[in-house]
Design brief:
mainly beta; five-stranded antiparallel sheet; four-stranded antiparallel sheet; 32 strands; 10% helix; globular
Length: 462
């Protein structure tokens, strides 16, 4: 039983609440609620001119660690604003956060649709589950609770590449129709700088556009942007985050062949300090392209493969990859083949050992191995899972817990969307942030937000 002197009487907006000092102090020593746990001797009932219904929800959160069912009647932003006032934003963020993202149990949670020109051309997720959406020449920011935080209009007609720079409110953007890598302060809605690729000794290097952008995990890591000129000369520039100036040039190529085209994807591999780059082209005769690992410190390529043919080629000649990505934490490269639709995996630690590094994922049930082709597929690695879009829908590959070793690595595949979802349009971009997967579809307005849910209705193929 609580001591009587531990009880606290609060008058919130004209409604009386009785709680304990212990409950209020659990909000943290810097919070307003902790201060309210020590009433003045002359006034045992403290008055706060705020909404009593919202306070009731927050008080239940302090008592039980969870939001009550009555919280559903309020807009999320109202709860967040009230939590900010009382100094318990971290508690409300934790309570409102989605569960850990498990692809096989994911479902479409909501769709974020910008107010104007709502078909997204690029998007970039934050580690807290926030999202920036490029639509035409605008960038709309949505916070961790997916509420609109603001929109900035840029000088570009269309943004095709978007990444967060440092500080986090700084956006690095590029366009396939306009030269340069441009930086915008999203919160301040202003242009703060531009980087161009130039070489006075080579007249072919001018009006270089950006095809892909990657960022490191720390402030000391530079940004990396792939530039391509009108005559297809291309390179990767490392740009200092603080000065917004180029510091080095990596891998200049002529672009005269598929093996030297500008990469459409650049990924910084944490821990190894390497860049994983991918270039894919398609035509009447199928797909071709290359993958390469660059060491930005030396400016040298430490591994590469091109399909069809080339160094370290796959044994499946003629079944080139349609897309590829790297899981830097697990040290694995994944690809999806355009003809068979098979998903292959290669261990970063065993590249260049003189044999075909690709192992193709298998399922427990041999009768369910066919998934259709991989034409127009998009592949993304996130949280140890591999998401693959196909014409038939979105699927996820997850490693099995009972694997017996790296050589016996086995996976399961699940479809994570319905036939109705797949009919909306082909998936063109996917990106993970926090415990969410953000998906955009061709010609469809808005960004789909996928989260784990016990009511996802996942179709298991085990």
């Amino acid at each position: 039983m609580e001591e009587s002197n531990d009880r606290i009487n609060l008058n919130i907006g004209g409604k009386l609440f009785e709680t304990t000092a212990t409950t209020l102090q659990s909000a943290g020593p810097e919070s307003l609620l902790a201060a309210l746990s020590i009433p003045a001797a002359s006034n045992p009932s403290t008055f706060v001119d705020r909404d009593p219904e919202l306070f009731s929800v927050l008080l239940t959160l302090l008592r039980s660690g969870r939001l009550p069912s009555s919280a559903r009647q309020f807009h999320t932003q109202d709860l967040v604003d009230e939590a900010l006032y009382y100094g318990i934003e971290s508690r409300i963020r934790s309570a409102l956060a989605p569960p850990p993202l498990l692809g096989f149990d994911a479902t479409l949670s909501t769709t974020i649709v910008p107010a104007s020109d709502a078909v997204p051309t690029a998007h970039c997720a934050g580690t807290d589950g926030s999202i920036w959406i490029a639509h035409s020449g605008q960038i709309s920011a949505y916070g961790w609770n997916l509420t609109h935080a603001g929109t900035v209009r840029t000088h570009l007609e269309e943004i095709s590449s978007l990444r967060r720079a440092w500080p986090e409110e700084l956006a690095a953007i590029g366009s396939l129709d306009y030269p340069g890598l441009h930086f915008y302060d999203v919160s301040g809605a202003c242009h703060v700088g531009t980087v161009h690729w130039s070489d006075p000794s080579d007249p072919r290097i001018y009006k270089a556009r950006v095809t892909a952008i990657a960022g490191g995990d720390s402030r000391s890591d530079p940004l990396f942007a792939s530039f391509e000129c009108l005559h297809r000369e291309n390179c990767i520039l490392a740009v200092d985050r603080e000065t917004l100036q180029p510091v080095s040039e990596i891998g200049r190529q002529s672009g005269g062949a598929a093996k030297s085209a500008a990469p459409g994807k650049v990924v910084h591999v944490p821990g190894l300090g390497l860049l994983f780059v991918v270039s894919v082209s398609s035509g009447a005769f199928g797909y071709s392209g290359y993958m390469r690992l660059w060491d930005p410190r030396s400016g040298e390529a430490v591994w590469e493969t091109s399909e069809p043919g080339g160094t370290g080629r796959s044994s499946r000649f003629g079944d080139s990859f349609a897309d590829a990505d790297v899981d830097g934490k697990e040290g694995l490269i994944y690809k999806v083949c355009w003809k068979s639709g098979d998903v292959g995996v290669a261990d970063l630690r065993r590249l260049g050992e003189g044999f075909d590094p690709w192992v193709y994922l298998e399922e427990r049930s041999p009768a369910l191995r066919s998934a259709g082709g991989g034409e127009n597929s998009v592949l993304r690695c996130y949280k140890g899972q591999v998401f693959v879009s196909r014409a038939t829908g979105l699927e996820v590959w997850s490693k099995l817990d009972d694997e017996q070793g790296e050589e016996e690595r086995r996976y399961r595949r699940n479809f994570v969307d319905t036939e109705e979802d797949a009919k909306l349009g082909l998936i063109r971009r996917m990106e993970g942030g926090g415990d969410r997967l953000f998906v955009s579809r061709e010609g469809v307005e808005g960004i789909q937000v996928w989260e784990s849910s016990e009511l996802s209705g996942t179709i298991s193929l085990l």
